[in-house]
Design brief:
The complex is a heterodimer of chains A (328) and B (356).
Chain A: H1 3-32, H2 39-57, H3 64-91, H4 100-121, E1 126-127, E2 136-139, E3 142-145, H5 146-168, H6 170-180, H7 182-187, H8 192-218, E4 220-221, H9 225-240, H10 245-269, H11 280-289, H12 300-314
Antiparallel strand pairs in A: 1-4, 2-3
Helix pairs in contact in A: 1-5, 1-8, 1-9, 1-10, 2-3, 2-4, 2-8, 2-9, 3-8, 5-6, 5-8, 6-8, 9-10, 9-12, 10-12
Chain B: H1 9-33, H2 35-60, H3 69-82, E1 83-84, E2 89-90, H4 93-112, H5 120-140, E3 154-155, E4 161-162, E5 165-166, E6 171-173, E7 176-178, H6 180-203, H7 206-216, H8 218-223, H9 228-254, E8 256-257, H10 264-277, H11 282-311, H12 318-336, H13 345-355
Antiparallel strand pairs in B: 1-2, 3-8, 4-5, 6-7
Amino acid sequence: MDTFIQQLINGLTLGAVYAIVALGYTMVYGIIQLINFAHGEVVMIGAMVAFTVINALAGSGLPPLAVVLIGTGCAIPVCVLVGYAMERLAYRPLRRAPRLAPLITAIGVSIILQNLAMLVWSRNILAFPQIIDIKLYNIAGATITNVQIVIILTCILIMVALAALVYRTRLGTAMRATAQNPQVAGLMGIDINRVIAATFAIGAGLAAVAGVMVGTYYGIAQYTMGSILGLKAFTAAVLGGIGNVPGAMLGGVVLGIVEALGAGYIGTYTDLCKISGISDWLTQRCANDGHFVLFGSNYQDVFAFAVLIMVLVFRPSGLLGERVGDRA
Amino acid sequence: MSARAKPPPVVFWSAMVLIVAVLIVLPFALTQIGTTWVRVTNLALLYVMLALGLNIVVGFAGLLDLGYIAFYGIGAYTYALLASPHFGLHLPFWVILPIGAAMASLFGVLLGAPTLKLRGDYLAIVTLGFGEIIRIFLNNLARPINITNGPQGIIGIDPFRIDGFSFASYQKIFGLEFSGPTKYYYLIVALVAVIIALNLRLQNSRIGRAWEAIREDETAARAMGINTTNLKLLAYAMGASFGGLAGGVFAAIQEFISPESFVLVESIMVVSMVVLGGMGNVWGVVLGAVLLSFVPDILRFTVQPVQQWMFGRMLIEPEVIRMLLFGLALVLVMLFRPAGLLPSAVRKRELAERAE
């Protein structure tokens, strides 16, 4: 089996999901310069709601795709509601406050959402029921599952739809105008509050879809799943240039692939036994157990963050970001 | 600061005497409730140290750091490795604490150097990544060569000791009973007092004013001839050194450390303390740290009895309620006091200007 292609496929799948979550971060950031730290928790709630519904419908005899779609259909309104409530209660009152104040409320909201989820669903892991018949396909010596194909295609579809929304509709124009200059946009007759609320709602809807996808991919959902996913997606958004919609898509995919390749190769390339004659002591250890791996695949996340830091050193505002002004 | 009229010296000094008296008596009063509370206080004071260190970076220089707990971890691991059976080293604490602080500030500069060009939220994610990188290393450096002992952590760390006098053991001095935590308490209070004094002096020094200038407008600060590179690095190094110092004390008090204590949530907690208390205001930061570290513990001991009393049984896990109330408190405080509980003079001025 070809490791490179295989890791590329795995990376692309995960990266596509990161991209969808990253879009939620980046759209909100682009408009009100707020890191919505609670966004990861919205993804988690989406996954939990969908899993509950899917588990309830698993025995009903409906086709699996319909079950998943109904689950997603239930998760989206819940997440949109959560996203809207969050904006209305925790962020809107602070729009003119010092910049770090909404960051702290975001942290508070994220703690609240996580613990509410624990109250509702307990600490147990929700498992995805065995309803999908997983098929494997061969591509150039690697395998891709039907779940992966669906995830990648859905993500592409979402990205196209979102690009159309942002660049082709009235709401999108209003969003871009608000992002450029809220005051002037307001003077032009745009209801800024509605635009911002709509942005949160769209981001939360995307988060619900992403939650279902990542849950289906790994087969599990738990109340803690939001934070690490949110962290990765936020990294992806920054990698691409935060506030930039195509940047979030690119950043997500790049991060997913970098991570997967890192996990696949880092152990092989840091195995000092492959390089002979460094020292006698090392030769002896290699003779004993054959490997002297400096960095195993546990360092996957280090690899991701190291790439992020390298990119930002050379491009301080991300891959596609515009140069930030002096008022940072 | 200068805008506010200073209280007359009599009032100031009597307030000082009162505070010192309370601080001296506090551990004995707390021992009456339970020695646990002295431990809780000690940890709270360590958080005060951390928050003050982070305040230099975030509050004074305006550089958002979401990976600050890494420096705490570096200080703790430096202490643990040099004073535990893990490597068989047992150096005295007054040697290791400065080494730990120096190590932390070295890493502070290492973090600062590549990120000098970054601003705002890009800096936030890089510092966050840095914190995660350090934690992952602490977690995994058990193989191929065992340095940190991985997730199991390091046990049997030496307490502070001067000749025969150990800070960890129970002792009777002049007829007064000193438990281990009580002795540490006095040591930490002294350290915190020194750090507060340093912070207050720094704030109005040449360096402190340069930091403020960088925070408000970096380009203008550079145009005024401020060496922004060096001063930003100095802020990182100084902030980190306090974190490293606190980490060393933490390792000695706990006598056990593992990477679990240095996770992202802890970094976020320290940032919350700084922002909630009032970024840039030393007393605000102290207040924020004390509140946020005590509130969860107080809730831990009150939530359960209150539920028993109201419903006659436990309806909801106390841990969940504790975190829910905590999250709610973060949101509500920020909604009603967006600049923090005790805003710094500059912030107050800014808010007043915007309101016009």
